[in-house]
């Protein structure tokens, strides 16, 4: 069920073991050919499909469109929360839901820049509630689950998520083709290997002048449906693990 469509007595009456999905995404530049709310639209569609399958077994919070996108701020239209402020925002959401009695909180991410503060928010919340062995505080990014869509569709060139890339452009072609601009003429911008496996601090223009990273010219509607079906299937299976958790053990 959708949290925003319920009244407070209904929410109070839910089982404290109802998994609460907290979708977190972004509004930021996506090159010349995709809208700035691409991450929010894609995550919203994936969570919508999971909700359609699981229905009243889960509670879905409104999508949090403001993310940590400071590395995109040189591109107009990007709206961003600083990492430390964003960490506090997510921590506050967790505190709200714990206060309301829920014990299984799932931050579902759809933007790479949210990864570090999102993980830190879940980690810090566990320290705040260190006397609560019944809490399950989780963070995941939707494209990090499962075997990966490229293993089941040979036509996909990219093996990992980029930015306004083959994957994201394909998914937007599937759900909002009227918002997709000229992608077929774009030259590929590879991910590159910048001192891997180390993590390098970077700004988008360090890697890409037009703002995209990947092979957007290879996008198609058919690829988009395969990606969305794969990601929503992976996320649904992961949420089922939360539903099946015994409420105590480390494994899930």
What do these coordinates show?
There is one protein chain. The protein is of the alpha/beta class and 252 residues long. The protein has one domain: Creatininase (Rossmann fold), CATH 3.40.50. The chain is 36% helix and 8% strand. The chain is built from 7 helices and 4 strands, in the order αβαβαβαβααα. It has a 4-stranded parallel beta sheet, with helices on both faces. Helix 2 (38-54) packs across helix 5 and helix 3 crosses helix 4 (115-128). The protein is globular, with a radius of gyration of 18 Å. The two termini are 23 Å apart.
Short description:
The chain has 7 helices and 4 strands; from the N terminus they run αβαβαβαβααα. By secondary structure, the protein is α/β, with parallel strands linked by helices. The protein has a 4-stranded parallel sheet, sandwiched between helices.
List keywords for this structure.
36% helix, alpha/beta, four-stranded parallel sheet, 4 strands, 7 helices, 252 residues, Rossmann fold, single chain
Name the shape in a single word: globular
**Mean of pLDDT:** 96
What structural category arises from helix and sheet content?
alpha/beta
CATH superfamily: Creatininase
CATH structural fold name:
Rossmann fold
Gyration radius, rounded = 18 Å
Total strands: 4
